[in-house]
User: Fold this.
Amino acid sequence: MESIAQYEAHSAEVELSLLINGECLSVGQLGPDFLLLDDVVAHPPTEAVIKMRVDEDENLWRVRLPEGIASERVSLALC
Assistant:
C-alpha cells in the first residue's frame, strides 16, 4: 500500500503599519519605494517607521516620507 504524504496548511497572519509621530496607520500594500495606506491622515514630510508583523515575528525599519502624506492621496513615496 502506498503512503500518502500529509501536509498541514498554514496561512500567515500579516500586519503592516506605518508608525508616524505616535500614530499607527494601517498599510494596505507595500512596494520597494511606495506604500498604500488604508486610511489617509495628512502629514508633512517626515521620517517614519514601517512595522511588518508575520505571525509572531516583527520587523521595523525607518523610512523617509519626502512628500509627506496628502489628505487626498493614499499612495506615498518612500526613500
About this structure: The chain has one domain: 14-77.
